[in-house]
Amino acid sequence: MSRGKSSTSLAKKHNRAGWIFLTPATIMIAAMSFYPMIRAFFLSLQAGKGNNLTFTGLSNYTRMFKDAVFMQSLKNCFFYLIIQVPIMLVLALILASILNNKDLKFKGLFRTAIFLPCATSLVSYATIFRALFAVDGLVNVILIKVGIFDTGYNFLANATSARIVIILALIWRWTGYNMVFYLSGLQNIEYSVYEAAKIDGASPFQSFRKITVPLLKPTILLTAIMSTNGTLQLFDESLNLTNGGPSNATITMSHYIYNMTFKYVPSFGYAAAMSYLILFLVAILAFLQMKVGDTRD
Amino acid sequence: MTKGQKAAAYTILIIVSFVSVFPLYWMISAATNKSVDVSRGRLIPGGELINNLKNLMAQYDIGSAMWNSFKYAVILTLLALFICSLAGYGFEIYHSKGKDRVMSILLLAMMVPFAAIMIPLYQMFSSAGLLNSTLGFILPTISTPFLIMMFRQSARSFPHDIIEAARMDGLNEFQIFYKMFFPTMRSTYAAAMTITFMTAWNNYLWPKVIMIDKASITMPMLVANLKEGYVTDYGMLMLAVLLCTVPTAIVFFLLQKSFAEGITGAVK
C-alpha cells in the first residue's frame, strides 16, 4: 500500500519537474511570438500615421489589394518561389544522391565545398553578388573580355536581369543547406537497396526516381516547407542586393513592410495587416504541401 | 558505376564546388586588393590588406561592431541552448498528454513570419527601454520551437535506465539533466550551437529595427551601411564582408562534423 502511494507521489513529482523544465521556453515563445501576433492583429484593424491610430475595421486588408507596390511585392515573392525553390531543391537532391554513392572519392571535400556558402551571412553574400554583378563588376569584366558585351551591362537596373541575379544568389546560398538534409535522410536508406536495383539493371536515373525520391519524401516535404516559408519572408537580399529596384521590380513583402514601418512615416496598422497576409499564405502553403506530401501513390 | 557515369558525377561535383567556392575566394582576393584592381578583374590576392583595414578602421568603428555581434551572439547562444534543451528534455522524458498538446501549440510559432511580430515587438521593447540593448537583441529568439524540437528528438534516444540509475543514486531531476543528459548529447548541443550562433550573428532585420545608436550596431548592419556610400571601395567593402564571415566560418568548420550528426538526429 505504502509503496503504491509513494510511487504515485513520485510520478507526480516527476510530472511536475517536467512542467518546470518546459516553462521558461514556453513562456518566452508565448511572450515573443503569440502575444505580439495578437497585438499585430489588433493593430491591423487600426489606421493612421505614427501612434495616432483609430479603429477602422478591415479597411487595411482591402487597401493592400489596391496597393500596386504591395501587389508587386507579392508577385515577386511568388516569382521567386515558383522559379527558385524547385530548381534549388532538385539540384540539392541530385547532388545529395551523387554524394551518397559509395564508389566516389573526396566526398567530404565536395560536401564541405558545396555547403560552404551557408557559412556566409545573408547581408554578406548579397553584398558579394551585388559587387560581382555591378557595372564594373567581375561578371561584366569577363563578359567584355569574352566579347559578349562592349560595355558593362547594368544587371541590377533591368527588372528581369535583377530578378535573375536574386534567384542565382538564392540558389548559390541555399542549395548546400538543403543538400545536407537530403544526405542525412539518405543515410536512413539501406545502401543495399541501391545495389539490388543496380543488379536488376536499373540506371542511376531510375534508382533516383524510383528509390531516392519516394523514400526521401518526408525530408523533401520538410525542405519544401522551410524554403516556402523562407521565400515568403525574404528581406536581406531584397534590401542589400537590389534595394528592391529597379522601381520595385524585386522588392519582397517583408522589405515593403519594413519600409512602411520604419522608413517612411510609420503606418503600423497597414504594415501589420500586410504581415498577416504573409502569415496566412505561409499557413495555407504549408497545409497544401502537407496534403500533397501525405497522398500515397 | 560505369566509367562514363563516374566521369559525369565528378564533372558535376567539380563544377558545383567551383561555383560554390569561387565567390568566397573572390571576396578574399578582393579584400587584399585596391578597388581599381578589383574593378579591372584582378583575381590574384594582392598586398593591400593592411591599407584596406586602415581605411575601414578610419571610417567605421569596426571593432565595436565586431564586439557587439560577438557579445549578442554568444550570450544568445548560451541562454537559448540552456532554455531550449531543458524544455526539449522536459517534453520528451516526462511526456504526458498535456505536454504534447503544449508542444504542438508551440510548433505553430514556427509559422509566424518575423515581419508580422516585428512591429508589436518594437513597440513593446521601446516602451520597456530595451532598444540598443543586448537583452533587446536576444529576447525574441531566446526560445525557438526548432531548437526545442531538436532536443526533444535527441532526448528520445536517451536511455531511461540511466535516469532510473541516477535516481537510485540520489540525484534530483535537474542534476540528472545536467550531469547525465548534457554530457551524452554533445553532438546535438554542437549542432544546436552552430545553428544558433550563425543565425544570431547573421540576423539583420531585428537588430536593424532596435539598434538605433551607432554604438550598438552589428557587423551585418555595418556591411550594409558600407555599401550605401556613393563611391564603392571594393577592397574595403570586401574586407568588411570577410570580417563578417570569418567568425561563422570558424564555428562552421569546428563543428561541421557534429553538425551533420545533429541534423541526422533531427531528421530521423
How much strand content do the residues of chain A show? under 5%
By secondary-structure content and strand pairing, the structural class of chain A works out as mainly alpha
Radius of gyration of chain B: 23 Å
Coarse shape of chain B: globular
| Straight-line N-to-C gap of chain A | 55 Å
Overall CATH class of chain B: Mainly Alpha
CATH superfamily of chain B: MetI-like
Low-confidence stretches of chain A: none
Secondary structure tally, helices of chain A: 13
Report on this structure.
The complex is a heterodimer of chains A (297) and B (268). Chain A is mainly α and 297 residues long. Chain A has one domain (67-294): MetI-like fold (Orthogonal Bundle), CATH 1.10.3720. Chain A has 13 helices and two strands, in the order αββαααααααααααα. Chain A has helices at 2-44, 59-66, 68-99, 107-115, 122-132, 138-146, 159-186, 191-199, 204-215, 217-232, 236-242, 253-263, 268-294, and strands spanning 46-47, 54-55. Chain A has a two-stranded antiparallel ribbon with strand order 1-2. The N and C termini of chain A lie far apart (55 Å). Chain B has 268 residues and is mainly alpha-helical. Chain B has helices spanning 3-31, 35-39, 49-59, 62-93, 97-108, 114-127, 134-138, 145-155, 160-168, 173-184, 186-202, 205-210, 219-226, 234-267. In chain B, α1 packs across α14 and α8 crosses α14 (234-267). Chain B is globular and about 70 Å long.
Keywords:
heterodimer; A: 297 residues; mainly alpha; MetI-like fold; 13 helices; 75% helix; flat; B: mainly alpha; 14 helices; 0% strand
